[in-house]
Amino acid sequence: QVQLVESGGGLVQPGESLGLSCAASGKIFSVGTVGWYRQAPGKQRELVATITSGTMTNYTDSVKGRFTISRDNAKNTVYLQMNSLVPEDTGVYYCNAFILGATKVGGESGASEISWRDYWGQGTQVTVSS
Asked: For residue 109, is pLDDT > 90?
């Protein structure tokens, strides 16, 4: 099964930087658009940044100029570099990816199918505080 695992979260002070990574594992054949989302306490999950297979990027206004999303297709990873962090950046950060991968169909046969699916990681906590 395809899985996404985030790493790099932690506690930092305002003005500092932090880098997040999201690694995809499993039988992967192709990866489409990949994105980072975040959810602050008491708020809805919001889009932070996306990057297409053609490396076209998109950022929410609040992080433009501070965050950079990138991808390494050979390693099936996506990276979010966060600079000049502010307390408002605090939240759980999730990676999301549209992936063409192998998904197991049945237990006995062991058969699998190749299909496009939207995958989510478990999230990593980012806290920006003095």
From this structure: no
